[in-house]
Structure formats: C-alpha cells, structure tokens
Amino acid sequence: MATFEKFEDIGAWNKSRDLAKEIFSLINKEFKNDQSLVWKIKKSAGSIMDNIAEGYGRGGNKEFIQFLSIAKGSSAELRSKLYRSLDQELISETELETLYKLSLEISKMIHGLIQYLKSSEHKGYKFK
Largest alpha-carbon pair distance within the chain? Predict the structure, then answer.
C-alpha cells in the first residue's frame, strides 16, 4: 500500500473533506425549500470521504480499491445532484462550476490511487 500512516494522509480524502465543507456551507445558506435534495447532496458529498476512509481501514488493497470505486461513484452522483440544484435555481453557475471542478479533481485523484494500488505488489497493511 502507499506510504499512508492513516487515511488522513490521503490527498483525495483531504480534498473530499474540503468539498464536503463547501457543500454543507452552501446548503445551509441556499437550500431552505428542498430538504430531500439537501439530504441527498449531504449524503453523496460525505460518502466520498467516508468510503476512502473505510476502504483504507479495511487494510487490504482489494478492499481499498472497492471502496475507492464507490467513492468515485459518489463523486459522480454529487455532480449530477449539483446540476439538479442548478436547474432548480438553488445554486448559481459559478457555484456549480467551483464545486464541479473540485469533485472532478477528487475523482481523478481517486482514479490515480486505484491505478497505483492495482500495480502495487504490496497487498495492504493487514498482510504485514
């Protein structure tokens, strides 16, 4: 596994935490009338960082890759929900663009980490 002592050392986790903070801040200001969408956006934003942490915590590369794939899917789901928010005029084009770019950057980081883990001969810290 990469040289991560803890999941907080993973760049994609830190970026997804920043994204979740921005999403939660925006939601608390703008989304007064659609509590269902609020819940769904919070869930998908939080799911990105949570799945990275859970996958890391499993201790093996195969499990980590599985959870990273789920995190990447949650990032795509979030981007879709951001478009729904724009269509409902809950967020601006500028807010969409900022959050979309950050989410896409996280997806690319996760993809790179998956590729690294797939090519690594190390099976994970639980196999030491």
Answer: 52
Residues 6+ apart with CB under 8 A from 16: 45, 48, 49, 52, 71, 75, 106
Picking from 22, 25, 17, 27, the residue whose alpha carbon sits closest to that of residue 47 is 17
Task: Please give the structure tokens belonging to residue 83.
Answer: 């478009």
Q: Do residues 125 and 59 lie in contact, with contact meaning Cβ atoms separated by under 8 Å?
A: yes
Amino acid letter for position 35: Q
How big is the chain, counted in residues?
A: 128
CB 52 within 8 A of CB 71: yes
pLDDT in tens, the chain (128 residues): 455 677 878 889 889 999 999 888 887 776 666 778 878 888 999 999 999 999 999 989 999 999 999 999 999 999 999 999 899 888 899 999 999 999 999 999 999 999 999 998 888 878 77
Q: Which CATH architecture has domain 7-120?
A: Up-down Bundle (1.20)
